[in-house]
Write a structure and sequence with these properties.
By secondary structure, this protein is mainly alpha-helical. It has two helices and no strands. The longest helix has 13 residues, at 15-27. The N and C termini lie far apart (30 Å).
Length: 63
């Protein structure tokens, strides 16, 4: 559904995978503009995922 309105979406199975994928896209200069994150993930909660993604977004070492 999101593709039809010109948006890209990604699906991950864990919080660690979500953080890794977000970081990879940020390093390529193609960061996501919004995240929908589940509260309970198998390896970390949604708040921790959000904190880690936010940390990478604010990092001065990204292009």
């Amino acid at each position: 559904m999101l593709v039809r309105v010109g948006m890209r979406s990604e699906w991950t199975l864990s919080g660690k995978e979500a953080v890794l994928r977000a970081r990879q896209y940020m390093e390529m200069g193609d960061a996501f503009q919004a995240y929908i994150i589940d509260w309970r993930l198998p390896d970390m909660n949604g708040i921790e995922v959000s904190r880690q993604i936010r940390h990478w977004q604010e990092s001065p070492f990204l292009p």
